Amino acid sequence: MNNKKLYITTTLPYVNAEPHIGHALEFVQADAISRYFKSKLGKENVFFNVGTDEHGQKMFKKAQEEGLEIQEFVNKYAQRFKDFCKLFFVDYDFFYRTSDENHHKAAQEFWKRCKEKGDIYKKRYSGKYCVGCERYITEKELVDGKCPDHGTEPEEKDEENYFFKLTNYKDHLLKWLDSNPEVLKPKQKREELKRIIEEIEDISISRLRENLPWGIEVPDDPEQVFYVWFDALTNYVNVIGFGTDEEKLNEWWPGIQLFGPDNLRFQGVIWQGMLASVGLDHSQKLLEHGMVLGPDGTKMAKTKGNVISPFDQEEKFGAEIVRFYLLVGIPTFSDSAYKEDDLINMYNSRLANNFGNLLNRVIHLAQSKGVEINKEELVEQDFKRKVDSMREEIESYYNDYEIALAAGKIDELADWGNKYITEKEPWSKELDFDTCQNILNNLGYLLKTVIELYSPIVPESCSKAKIALERNEKIILFNKI
Ligand SMILES: [Zn+2]
């Protein structure tokens, strides 16, 4: 990539249920990355997309269960996701909805181009179909005749569908992965991705309309509708001009894509094959975040009673603290248990006792000594160099999307500030004014750096901290819990 624009997108969650903690993780991670790069490249050079996937049989059934018109139903849940973003400070540039008319047109254009390329064909298909997965599943995958992910028996289906010739791109994708060893994070998932590519089969991408009235019409065949994810995946490029604005598309694509562990096949293989089919570059980066596990360290499930609700957590601790814990307490690229004790400890030690405490100490001293603390010319060179070199380290983590590691280093920087103040005793009556002024300006500089670097993670508190530091006004940002 040689342009300085950066495009980042989450996956689009299905709107058949309330947002869960996994959505929260993905959304806040993407938001933190977006905020960081906006601060580096300028707001206008970063585009951050989120949205909702609103088609499919699951949605259709759910709407009927709730006694709502389907459009009404998806509107309601799309709004829930928008509110959810607002609650957790997810400052997106665009909220993409696949029931939107513009999306239909762009998805149909995508289909046409794959078809022109010779990658779409029609064939009769029969098999076992899991509504939960929105796909046919093979005998091999079944456990006791049931879908292992949904625990339900698949439906027998026999119909004529369109297929996408993913097998055309097997060698191409293997070569791509081979020559782009850094494209997927975490690295250890590379083998899994390779294996999925090696096992590629052509995939069914349409359904009979009579079975699925809620979907996008296949071009030139009104009896068929898009298979839900074939339409949804195209959102990643539609939103930046695919089919409508080639110039814009070239400006922003390829982009950075975030997704969860159950999504590697779609994002890393099928979507990459679709991109190759229409002649677009592959994604710039594929970031597979971990799974938020229940407090007992196992996958959350209603039946196990270990489900953590982001809304409950927000009510209990406040949105920013939950956000902080998701970004810092949950490793960015691996599975981890959500534990309230860890949340409390981490919040108290890092934000209340370290960062917040340092801010209070410095402002308090500056006030009582009558010292201004925002004079960069008074910062000692050695001190500045040390802070700047730590900043570099932290930024290199951010540049590599390692949010939790970046946060760990920011904590070290604040801790160093607290040790420095204890060692230098700027409250001592023996200290002359100039020395005291230097010490406090050193710390002001350090705090300014901490605030800037923490901003992608705890944006609200940091904007308050910034104002307090600039005005030299006391503030309690983080009450201990
Ligand atoms: Zn299933």
TrEMBL record:
Keywords: Aminoacyl-tRNA synthetase, ATP-binding, Cytoplasm, Ligase, Nucleotide-binding, Protein biosynthesis
MF annotations from Gene Ontology: ATP binding; methionine-tRNA ligase activity
The protein's Enzyme Commission number: 6.1.1.10
InterPro entries the UniProt entry points to: aa-tRNA-synth_I_CS, Met-tRNA_synth, Met-tRNA_synth_2, Methionyl/Leucyl_tRNA_Synth, MetRS_core, Rossmann-like_a/b/a_fold, tRNAsynth_Ia_anticodon-bd
Methionyl/Leucyl tRNA synthetase domain location: 151-362
Coiled coil: none
SUPFAM superfamilies: Anticodon-binding domain of a subclass of class I aminoacyl-tRNA synthetases, Nucleotidylyl transferase
Pfam family name, one: tRNA-synt_1g
GO biological-process terms attached to the record: methionyl-tRNA aminoacylation
NCBIfam families noted in UniProt: metG
Family in the record: Belongs to the class-I aminoacyl-tRNA synthetase family.
Described purpose of this protein according to its UniProt entry: Is required not only for elongation of protein synthesis but also for the initiation of all mRNA translation through initiator tRNA(fMet) aminoacylation.
PANTHER family per the UniProt record, alphabetical: METHIONINE--TRNA LIGASE, MITOCHONDRIAL, METHIONYL-TRNA SYNTHETASE
Protein name (database record): Methionine--tRNA ligase
